[in-house]
Design goal:
The complex is a heterodimer of chains A (349) and B (314). Chain A is an all-alpha fold and 349 residues long. Chain A has helices spanning 11-35, 40-52, 55-80, 88-106, 112-141, 145-165, 200-217, 219-229, 231-236, 241-268, 279-289, 294-318, 324-344, and strands at 2-5, 345-348. Chain A is built from 13 helices and 2 strands. Chain B is mainly α and 314 residues long. Chain B contains 13 helices and 2 strands. In chain B, strands 1-2 form a two-stranded antiparallel ribbon. Classes of the chains: A mainly alpha (349), B mainly alpha (314). Chains A and B meet through helix 6, helix 11 and helix 13 of A and helix 5, helix 11 and helix 13 of B.
Amino acid sequence: MRFERREHRPVALVIATPLIAIAAALAIAGVLIAIAGAPVLEAYWRILVGAFGSRLSATETLTRATPLILTGLAAAVAFRARLWNIGAEGQLYLGAIAAAWAGSHLFGSWPSIVQIPLLLLFGAVAGMILLLVPLWLRLRFSVDEVVTTLLLNFVAVLFVSMLIDTVLKDPTAFGWPQSQSVSDAAMLPKLLARSRLHLGLVIAIVLAFVLAFVQSRTVFGMQSRAAGINPQGAAFAGVPLGRTLVAVACISGGLAGLAGAVEVMGVQGYVTTNLSPGYGYSGIVVAMLANLSPLGVVLAGLFTATMFVGADGMSRSLGIPSYIADVIVALSLLSMLVAVFFTQYGIRR
Amino acid sequence: MSAILDILASAGLWAAVLRIATPLILGTLGALLCERSGVLNLGIEGIMTFGAMIGWLAVYNGADLWTGFLLAALAGGVFGLLHAGLTVTLGLSQHVAGLGVTLFAASFSYYVFRLAVPVAGTPPTIIPFQPISIPGLSDLPVLGPAFFAQTPPTYLAILLALVLAYVLFRTPLGLAIRMTGENPHAAEAQGINPMVVRYGAVIVGSALMGMAGAFLTLAAFNSFFPTMVQGRGWICIALVVFASWRPERALLGALLFAFFDGFQLRLQTALGGTVPYQLFLMIPYILSIAALAIMARRARVPQALMQPYRRGER
């Protein structure tokens, strides 16, 4: 048995790939649920109900999807250019603290219309800077960025932890390490009353469309893709590799930083060290599930958020550890990798 | 200044250095073996977590410590098989497959742990490996407690580093592994099956990662908690570069690294809260990044690292 590259890829197969992958992941996770002694189909039904069964849960799922879409876009845009940015988690935290600092110390009294864009910009720039460091190490010293971006996650979270313990500590928080809050004017408008759903979702979806346009219709989009597929060939064809990678890093780190700023300005208004339950890492899965397509990221972000929010409800009613959500998401990534492989290769005996 | 000297002269520091280094030695050897055959294994963080969990769970359920340690190695090997299936047979991106393995192994560990051990106020504990004093030698000042009063897995880790160095550079098997990592086509021309070599290296390497995790729960601590691996796996990946893919340097690198880690912990106590503790906690990660930047250029990377091998395809 051996694998052979397919001459052409059937469109139906490419579209069905993520669905097949998710079905496979749910089937394997089903075995784990069955081993735990719970009815599998009911468990999945409970996940759906937990994620969409009420107005509250549905808006909660959408709120949870927002940072996942942004970190998913951050990973997708970088991976397409083979820039392995695994540091979205750290970039998110740095973006969050930058927005919180700008909102509490610099522009706190400014009107919403100026303050909100400024804070978002601060968040994005902070994320960018954190990714430019490993990119510089790669271009200058040829250090593989996978490990450096990963390690910087720990550095960034510790740095934020230090700031909210010292100079940015909220003195009114009863000794808890949390940053000072941004002013009410800095909070993103709610999309629906009596819910946590905020404008961030719209920002994330709009950015997905913008990115889809940039990647398919602009010279930069073409260059970043070429840099990923065949760096030598691209350089030979006149693509400025270094500059393209810097631009890709700015977009990727910027999106991850933005995710942090949006989380602060949309949800709680201040930063703690449990602001993100691993959104940066889940963003990698989201990007892979979407096969690195920006619009696919929106759907994949929604799927992942559904699992995380739904699993909480399922966990409470059936007594299955809610870690099953992380298991399903990780299995989706692995099965998606395999599924994508079989759209590119056929089996020949 | 005298505080620093006091720390350096204390036997506790040097004993701690070997303890801190042990999981790093085992993990680095595992990652190094995989990479020597041409496969980057970013599954390490998750595999270590799973090894820590399985080893602990086995002992908690009545197995003896060595059985737990062995089971952790086996469990690591199984995840190695998964990683090899994805990267060797299918030839998928080693970066992404490895991250997938890490995410799966880590979340699966937490899931199994929660199923097996109901939520409790204080985490349940086991009786871990106890230090074994080597008579005579362990009575030496400073050096004695550091080098001759450690738990058995520490001695095993040091021994394994020497064994791996011997196998890689002094045996035909080692030559086959190194050739596969440099040029699988040439290796095949010599009658070596690169697929088999890579599978073997990734499975054995991952078993070492499983042991690295088991050391944490069976010797360094006595309970399992999520996120206990805390980036040690990623530091091992950095240490492989620092060691220029050589086991004996991996041993030294892990010891050096552990020295800084143990030293900063004691310095932190000595300075007594005048400096934010987070600064000290950042040191291991920043050191790793600095080590990468210094060594990345000088190091000779296995030429076929991260390149999938398919027969007849170049």
